[in-house]
């Protein structure tokens, strides 16, 4: 299918990433899968490759490229190989936008050099037990000390991707009570050092899919957070969170499209090799029609994902457009991956086949970053309904 979203630089980067995956990830991926996470030193390799520094300004050791297209290439190449880069996706997709948007010059000098090298991995802690998508209902608090030098953080978070290996976590906490007319008021963001006393990582959560991505529960008991680690202005955190939701939802949409494309590739290869009743599964008309229908859906999802990517890079991706892209691409991926697994027969149910892992990994796309139902509400509101 004809595309215009990538240029020669992106394709050269694609070759580099593809070779890196073949050499550094594929041979050990089964070990990571069994362990339930990628090893910490793998992130240093990503940093050395330059993956984390692409969008970091040159003065802090990055490439200074203001584009998400290199991230998009990584989504496509990891899906194509049936692997993932562990919890590192949140480091760049979720962590970096907040640093670039909110950090002072002093904070950038402290944080970005180690961000780019992978020496300091970042995560985002928003969700709490019992609150789910209701961010304004959070109970975690951060109270300013009497001498004004630090905040005292207390509370808990759950479903925190990258939470096991994280060195700094952007924690959302209440610094003031909600107002009667604005329950979103009073939330602030802090870049919390995970080595702080009173900070603890609870269970590494056992998930249906995304087995190589470490996801954890976090707890804070009288954690002292220096005032120098407040991100942005106090009590305005909810607005900051909303600003970056569009890029997060684009990432989920693009990743889902890439998974769907990979599923078609896996199924096509399998049915051409697999023999039933004396002929290949690919020779049956049902197989051809199923794969043709799946390819048509993937083509449509690619167009939607690419359009959202161009809008994001231009700074024009609206909340409704991001919601629409996420809803469409994740629903397409759900249908396509299911049909491609069916074409594998019983082997599609075995974790040794990438289609089985893809099936499990894909399911969360319609939940995190805002459920499909929330996406429909956003779209409906933009329609004036």
TrEMBL record:
Belongs to the acyl-CoA dehydrogenase family. Residues 123-223 form the Acyl-CoA oxidase/dehydrogenase middle domain. PROSITE patterns: ACYL_COA_DH_2 (PS00073). It comes from the Bacteria. Keywords: FAD, Flavoprotein, Oxidoreductase. It comes from Streptomyces sindenensis. The keyword tRNA processing does not apply. InterPro entries: Acyl-CoA_DH_CS (IPR006089), Acyl-CoA_Oxase/DH_mid-dom (IPR006091), Acyl-CoA_Oxase/DH_mid-dom_sf (IPR046373), AcylCo_DH-like_C (IPR036250), AcylCo_DH/oxidase_C (IPR009075), AcylCoA_DH/ox_N (IPR013786), AcylCoA_DH/ox_N_sf (IPR037069), AcylCoA_DH/oxidase_NM_dom_sf (IPR009100). Residues 7-119 form the Acyl-CoA dehydrogenase/oxidase N-terminal domain. Its cofactor is FAD. This is Acyl-CoA dehydrogenase family protein. Residues 235-383 form the Acyl-CoA dehydrogenase/oxidase C-terminal domain. PANTHER family: ACYL-COA DEHYDROGENASE (PTHR43884), ISOVALERYL-COA DEHYDROGENASE, MITOCHONDRIAL-RELATED (PTHR43884:SF12). Gene3D superfamilies: Acyl-CoA dehydrogenase/oxidase, N-terminal domain, Butyryl-CoA Dehydrogenase, subunit A, domain 2, Butyryl-CoA Dehydrogenase, subunit A, domain 3.
């Amino acid at each position: 299918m004809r595309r215009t979203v990538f240029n020669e630089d992106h394709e050269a980067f694609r070759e580099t990433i593809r070779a890196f995956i073949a050499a550094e990830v594929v041979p050990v991926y089964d070990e990571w899968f069994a362990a339930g996470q990628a090893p910490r030193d793998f992130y240093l390799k990503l940093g050395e490759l330059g993956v984390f520094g692409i969008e970091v300004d040159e003065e802090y050791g990055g490439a200074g490229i203001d584009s998400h297209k290199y991230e998009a290439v990584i989504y496509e190449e990891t899906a194509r190989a049936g692997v993932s880069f562990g919890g590192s996706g949140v480091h760049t997709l979720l962590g970096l936008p907040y640093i670039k948007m909110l950090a002072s010059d002093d904070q950038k000098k402290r944080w970005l050099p180690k961000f780019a090298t992978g020496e300091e991995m970042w995560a985002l802690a928003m969700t709490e037990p019992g609150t789910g998508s209701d961010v304004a209902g959070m109970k975690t608090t951060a109270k300013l000390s009497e001498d004004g030098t630090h905040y005292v953080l207390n509370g808990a978070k759950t479903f925190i991707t990258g939470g096991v290996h994280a060195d700094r976590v952007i924690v959302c906490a209440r610094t003031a009570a909600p107002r009667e007319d604005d329950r979103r008021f009073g939330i602030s963001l802090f870049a919390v050092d995970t080595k702080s006393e009173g900070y603890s990582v609870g269970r590494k959560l056992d998930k249906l899919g995304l087995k190589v991505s470490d996801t954890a529960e976090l707890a804070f008991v009288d954690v002292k957070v220096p005032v120098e680690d407040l991100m942005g202005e106090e009590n305005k955190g909810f607005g900051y969170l909303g600003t970056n939701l569009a890029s997060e939802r684009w990432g989920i949409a693009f990743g889902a499209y890439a998974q769907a494309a990979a599923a078609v590739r896996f199924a096509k290869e399998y049915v051409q090799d697999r023999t039933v009743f004396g002929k290949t599964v690919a020779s049956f008309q049902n197989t051809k029609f199923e794969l043709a229908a799946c390819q048509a859906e993937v083509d449509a999802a690619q167009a939607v994902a690419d359009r959202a990517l161009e809008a994001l890079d231009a700074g024009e991706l609206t909340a409704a457009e991001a919601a629409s892209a996420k809803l469409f691409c994740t629903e397409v991926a759900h249908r396509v991956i299911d049909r491609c697994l069916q074409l594998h027969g019983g082997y599609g149910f075995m974790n040794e086949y990438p289609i089985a892992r893809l099936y499990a990994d894909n399911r969360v796309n319609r939940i995190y970053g805002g459920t499909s139902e929330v996406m429909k509400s956003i779209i409906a509101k933009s329609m004036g309904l």
